[in-house]
Amino acid sequence: MFGLGSKNIGIDLGTANTLVYMEGKGIVLREPSVVAKNTQTGEVIAVGSEAKEMIGRTPGSIVAIRPMKDGVIADYDTTAAMLKYFMEKTNGNSKPSVMICVPSGVTEVEKRAVIDAARVAGAREAFVIEEPFAAAIGAGLPVMDPTGSMVVDIGGGTTDVATISLGGIVSSTSIRQAGDKFNSAIINYIHSKFNLLIGERTAEDIKIQIGSASIEKAKEIEAMSIRGRDLVTGLPKSIQVEAVDVASAIQDVVQDIIVAIKETLEQTSPEIAADVIDHGIVLTGGGALLKNLPDVIAEATKVPVFIAQDPLDCVAIGTGESLKNIEVMRRSRK
After folding, report:
1. 123 a known binding residue?
2. 287 a known binding residue?
3. Is 62 within any annotated ligand binding site?
4. Which CDD domains match (predicted)?
5. Cα of 191 vs its chain's centroid, Å
6. Would the annotation count 56 as a binding residue?
């Protein structure tokens, strides 16, 4: 049916990272969604980890860009080039059928752009699956059962919240408040409080090491030493950053995520809401690893909250698992 050695693949095309799942093999690639290009010739110089190393360190003629923004394609040609690189790296020159996840709030035009980019990159055919549904499958939730499940997928660009029952999304909310917004909030806070300029990579390190969703619990976390550029002298400078300050800086984003969860619960039928209270809310995505986040959400919603077993991999695993239903999707297109 396919070329020799060709395997269908599922792609978690994220704002921050791209994961590729291959039928029969599981996750075979995990790289940052970054492309380094020559600004004069338009030539792609590096993709993935190699390109990420160049962020903030490139000469004038080279620019390292993230072609995905807020979970959707911001730079079409670069996204297609990135997909082509990842597909060839995992699948050689064969033309696989590809399943790609998209945030639940995307328009038909944005879905079409993802499918077209995959075709340009060498896919034989491409289908899309909504991110929270893929996350729920990957987290092992009973998505086909007549029982309600709730998943909150906090990625780099979007947070997708959905209740799921009988193989479909019952209610969902997608907001462009997620990992990147945590980083921006940290950068802005350090800038305004300390007159210090830090880059995205430093902000990401701060978030991972001392970031906390709870200001109260942050008091128990030790301070962290960071380096940046002093905006007064223009020279490099080191400072100590307190975890409480970081927790305060990201509080607005945490609250926006909680509001999205509450709104999704309010749109849900009483029966499914009762199931969610029984089974709890499952967190997936990199943002699920923010310290004390489950406790803060549980306190605000009065519903138990759990982190999925492999939060970073759930969407990719679910996207790959959904390849089993590719025949159904083919028929629904006709």
Report:
1. no
2. yes
3. no
4. ASKHA_NBD_MreB-like (cd10225)
5. 26
6. no
Query: Is 134 known as a binding-site position?
Result: no
204 belongs to an annotated ligand binding site: yes
Kindly list the strands in the beta sheet with 305-307, ordered across the sheet, starting from the edge strand earlier in the chain. 168-175, 159-165, 149-154, 281-284, 305-307
243 is in an annotated binding site: no
Q: 219: number of CA atoms within 13 Å, CB side? A: 3
Sign of CA dihedral 53, 56, 60, 61: positive
Is 93 known as a binding-site position? no
288 is in an annotated binding site: yes
For CA atoms 26, 29, 34, 35, the dihedral sign is negative
For residue 305, list its beta bridge partners. Answer: 281
Tell whether 289 is in a known binding site.
yes
Q: Is 318 known as a binding-site position?
A: no
List, in order of start, the domains of the chain with CATH numbers. Answer: 9-133+315-333 (3.30.420.40), 141-307 (3.30.420.40)
Pairing mode, strands 97-102 and 62-65: unpaired
| Residue 163 marked as a ligand binder | no
How far is CA 241 from each of CA 169, 215, 224, 237, rounded to the nearest angstrom? 41, 14, 5, 13
Residue 283 among known ligand-binding residues = no
Task: Quick: pLDDT tens for 91-149.
Answer: 888 889 999 999 988 899 999 999 999 999 999 999 999 999 999 999 999 999 999 99
C-alpha 32/C-alpha 49 separation (Å) is 6
| Model confidence pLDDT, tens digit, residues 38-90 | 988 989 999 999 999 887 777 888 888 999 998 889 999 999 999 999 999 99
- Provide the token pair at 263: 């709104």
Q: Are 97 and 323 in contact (CB under 8 A)?
A: yes
DSSP string across 8-46: -EEEEE-SSEEEEEETTTEEEEEEES-EEEETTT--EEE
Q: Which pTM does this prediction carry? A: 0.91
State yes or no: 113 annotated in a binding site.
Answer: no
pLDDT grade for 323, boundaries at 50, 70 and 90: confident
